[in-house]
Amino acid sequence: MSIAAEIRVRRRIVLPTWASGLAGEHALLVGVAVLGVLVLTALLGPVIDSDSATSTAYGTLHSPSGAHLFGTDDVGRDVLVRVFHAIRLDLVLALVICGLATVAGAVIGLASGFAGGLVDLVVMRLVDIMMSIPVFILALITAVVLGNTEQTMVLAIAFAYTPVAVRIVRSQVLLLRELPMVETSRAIGTPAWRILLWHVLPNTASVLIAQATLFLAWAILDTAAMSFVGVGVHPPTPELGAMISEGSQYIVSGQWWISIFPGIFIALLVVSFNLVGDSLRDYLDPRSRR
Amino acid sequence: MTEPRVAVEGLTKVFRHGQVRAVDGVDFAIAPGEAVGIVGESGCGKTTVARCLLRLVKPSSGSIRFDGAPVLRLSGKGLAAFRRSAQIVFQDPFASLDPRFTVQRTLGEPLRVHRIARRSEIATEAARLLHEVGLRDDFLPRYRHELSGGEAQRVAIARALATEPSFLVLDEPTSALDASARLKVISLLRRLRRDLGMTYLVISHDLTIIRYLCDRVLVMYLGRIVEDAPAGELFAAPQHPYTEALLSATPDARAKGEVMRIRLHSDVESAGAAPGCALAPRCHRATDECFVRPQRLEPIAPARLVACHRVSAGEVTLPSWLDTEPLARAGEERR
Amino acid sequence: MSEQLLEVRGLTVTLRSRRGTGRIVEGVSFEIARGESFGLVGESGSGKSMTALSIMRLLPNVAETSAGEIRVEGRDVLGLDEREMRSLRGGSVGMIFQQARSALNPLMRIDDQILRVAALHGRTNGKGEALAVELLREVGLPRRVARSYPHQLSGGMAQRALIAIVLAARPQLLIADEPTTGLDVTTEAEIYDLLRKLRAELGLSLLLITHDLALVAQNCDRVAVMHAGHVVEIGRVEQIFERPLHPYTQALLNSVPTLEGDADEALALEGSAPRFDELPEHGCRFVERCPQRMPKCGEPFTAIELEPGHRVLCRLYD
User: Fold this and answer.
1) Burial tier of B123 (Cβ tally within 10 Å: 0-12, 13-18, 19+)
2) How high is the ipTM of this complex?
């Protein structure tokens, strides 16, 4: 048993040893390390330097220097300070979006999968319709319909992600529902809600957690993108997408730092969340366990 | 006559909008304390019968009585009592245990659901159940991946025992186990039945398991019972051609060398449409009549029923020791 | 020695993993003559499948043959390069598995799969269609199966189709790893009838790997019993079944459910085999479970031949 299980785990990886290491545990480590640094700076930055994000006292359009590592922008604000404030805001927004989408997806997916029949049919057709529209467009439309504020943007993006989570949870539930594990519980007489809570939800968790991490990456991107086109977070609030948008007009005249630095940090955040998410998914994949 | 523990009448289960008749009008009864086996190839409907009995699958028609109570119409307290009295153990012990549950929590589930033990008593009660199935209580904190197949199956059995059931369905209880673990589980099941006086329904494709565990055997073919006989008689003198073929196909380590070989013709292509016996296209004894004449389960001796007109018409010779005198009486008693 | 089709000498397979290292197959020796049917029995984890995979050089990356010699038709398998190995795999040695359907390509018709193997081993010479039909007839499948896809076949038919594909390369030795696990007894009996017929007609040798002693008794000439990576006993089937010497073989035989005899007299085997990373450095690996263990059982030892061809790995017979 143990040998067979061991072999099954290893066989999935066809890369040479060094490459599989890079793709596996190392990716998780790199992702976690980068994220850790970013989160720490996001948390500490504003504490150390609380009111300088909107301060315009540094002179306009200075290129990066010892005094202002990332330079200053068109109204004389320090780009570095604003980037750190923006990371904090974007992380908070991403967390809220991810939480909303994951919880909503879990609840709807569990109910739909376990109930089956007509309920399931209706839910899944709705999910299909939502998933046929690109996530960004769907979020954009929703935000415009609900009104152009930070809160509505968060709701809109979460709404757009929910069907993804519903699908994942439901497919897990359908798998689990047929297992002798769940049938035994039914034979014992365990009520349906307890079966869901005890056996189905915990066994869905690993897949859901991995997806939630990917939601964080998507949310960073989509929040930035929405703000870039002027939906959601508005200037002068520091937000990475909005900052790129503000700085974009200066790129042609040579003041690249206003847009580039927020862009680099979006990329860093997204890549590290993706690394963590992908390796978590591989690591938690129920097929590799037993 | 005592009331049967389980009485099944006209049980039918149709899947996929009437295309597949998994179980097709099955009748049988199990007396209290009796161990009955159902054998047949995969797809013969034996597992569906078991699931219907425990109300895990809703039958298309038919009735099931448990200690006289109509199982399909139970609800509330009656259903809870039924769930306590009838338990099931599945084939794959790993699939039937939650990977995230410790043994103690697994055993605690029925105890909590039926309020058999208080939260504080669960550990002691779980340990007692483990002893019952021959495991030490240091298994309590273990997870399923820390168990061998045999140990996992014992845990599954212990969980089934938690509610002190009077009736246990064993669905291929040893098919996923190694030789040594298999025999231990069999002897455990024999001991439990002797000590606790339980009633068993054993589902298996393996006749040797049935022989060790059961008093009476039902042979199923394509959703119907084709033979019903006391275990000893069935193994000594199978009557239905299908039973014969099953027995002769079962490998036996002691019967080395040339073995009796009755082979059914290869996998069936078109079963169902014909009005006659479903086995006819594969049967080594089939005549033209078999293809047109419907078969019914008919008594041929006390406590023996066979669904083969050639056997009941006496065209196939019965062993001389089989007493055919009190046929009619036996037929009456069964009802 | 050349009448031996397969010779395995002192084969040792080492498994390395995060959990530890262990010789999951150690000092395994046996040989299979042309036309012979040989059984390798043991419980799961006993190393029987690993032994078979070493013959095909198909061990997973975590395991490697660390000692020993394997010869097929006199050729040293472990010394062959990858190209020669490919002609050996499928060519001289064919292998069938349990779950035949998952060993078949789901997107290809059966006849195409047969012809592809035949072409690889240079056996088509223009009569493709006929060859496929002939092979299918040989394994007892109707002509129409040629144009079927794997999902259209039942489990038994899929196993027959797999055998036909393997036969397309005209192997000398067929390795069958639990070929009927998961199939019904009636289908199982048919598959073994087929294997028996193929041996008689084509002079094929068979290496049957199974946990089921009854199948070995009915289908093999000789048998090796494996426990925790050791061959504990080897001999002709009647020697092993009538005069089992090793306590493990005796216990295993006692634990086989049969259609005759008293169910209560059967004796269960206590405990379980040691895990691969907890194997003793030397000496007997059955000692923990053995009812007749002695102090000297922990010492290094070798197999003893007690009657011609009947060897046992046990200190009881010193």
Assistant:
1) middle
2) 0.82
